[in-house]
């Protein structure tokens, strides 16, 4: 079986509506991308939950998939009519049947975090059997180690976790930070997330890695303090959660924060300086890691 794939040039102001119209007219899938991606004119777009995206790409393209025997031209024309726009420019190519599972797996290679810490998908051989290998596959929850914010937190844990310390991973996603802390020698480890699917994924990933870590929703978080609290979320929730997160850190304990854009570092550091002696921020590809020690 094969498919037709169209790459359609659109104005960013109508891209979302046009993609929806394509789906209504019989398209199998439609994804909006930056038409200038991979060039010097590429625009990074950042947004946070509950906040509107302030800008869109100057030029967009829609990658749309169609059945092999459908009238692709008719569907594109119908979508353009529904959106009251002129017929856009587009190109068409044939997409052959493939082993999509194997193709997807080939895109995820082991990730080296440090000399002793690797993230390895379950279908790969561990690059270094003597290293600490986190067995983690891409899934529904955020956190495979490829994003700079996750990498920054893992590097901090690798450098600072000592045997027996207690760790709270707030906004645990896939559970990767909690699992890493446990494999690095931490004692009691708890991961918390607002998404039940993330909690389920974290439990499964902990079992896959043969570590004993607990995971729960925020309402079930015990009123306890920890030696280390790590929160790899986003700046907006970190602004709101500062007092709560600080209350879970023992006097003299450490906090680690990420999901923060480089331009937001000073503001977030000032907020957390109410409770912590803050370290110098660390940056990676436009993202920031903040850390600090709780005042006694």
TrEMBL record:
The catalysed reaction is: L-lysyl-[protein] + 3 S-adenosyl-L-methionine = N(6),N(6),N(6)-trimethyl-L-lysyl-[protein] + 3 S-adenosyl-L-homocysteine + 3 H(+)
Could you state a single Gene Ontology molecular function term?
protein-lysine N-methyltransferase activity
State any GO BP term from the record.
methylation
Q: Where does S-adenosyl-L-methionine bind?
A: 150, 171, 193, 232
Superkingdom, natural source: Bacteria
Query: Family, per the entry?
Result: Belongs to the methyltransferase superfamily. PrmA family.
For this entry, the protein name equals Ribosomal protein L11 methyltransferase
Q: Which organism is it from?
A: Crenobacter intestini
């Amino acid at each position: 079986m094969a498919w037709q794939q169209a790459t359609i040039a659109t104005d960013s102001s109508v891209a979302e509506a046009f993609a929806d119209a394509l789906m209504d007219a019989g398209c199998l899938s439609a994804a909006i991308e930056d038409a200038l991606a991979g060039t010097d004119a590429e625009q990074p777009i950042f947004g946070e939950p509950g906040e509107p995206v302030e800008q869109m790409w100057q030029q967009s393209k829609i990658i749309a998939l169609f059945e092999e025997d459908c009238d692709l031209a008719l569907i594109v024309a119908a979508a353009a009519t529904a959106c009251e726009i002129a017929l856009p420019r587009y190109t068409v190519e044939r997409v052959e049947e493939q082993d999509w599972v194997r193709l997807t797996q080939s895109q995820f290679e082991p990730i080296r975090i440090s000399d002793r810490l690797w993230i390895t998908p379950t279908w790969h051989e561990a690059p270094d059997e003597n290293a600490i290998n986190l067995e983690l596959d891409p899934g529904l929850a955020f956190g495979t180690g490829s994003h700079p914010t996750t990498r920054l937190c893992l590097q901090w844990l690798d450098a600072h976790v000592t045997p027996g310390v207690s760790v709270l991973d707030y906004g645990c996603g896939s559970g990767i930070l909690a699992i890493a802390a446990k494999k690095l020698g931490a004692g009691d480890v708890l991961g918390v997330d607002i998404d039940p699917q993330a909690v389920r994924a974290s439990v499964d990933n902990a079992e896959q890695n043969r570590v004993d870590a607990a995971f729960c929703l925020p309402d079930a978080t015990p009123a306890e303090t920890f030696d280390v609290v790590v929160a790899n979320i986003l700046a907006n929730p970190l602004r709101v959660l500062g007092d709560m997160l600080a209350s879970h850190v023992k006097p003299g304990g450490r906090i680690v924060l990420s999901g923060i854009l480089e331009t937001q570092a000073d503001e977030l550091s000032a907020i957390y300086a109410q409770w912590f002696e803050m370290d110098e921020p660390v940056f990676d590809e436009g993202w920031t890691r903040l850390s600090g020690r709780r005042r006694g």
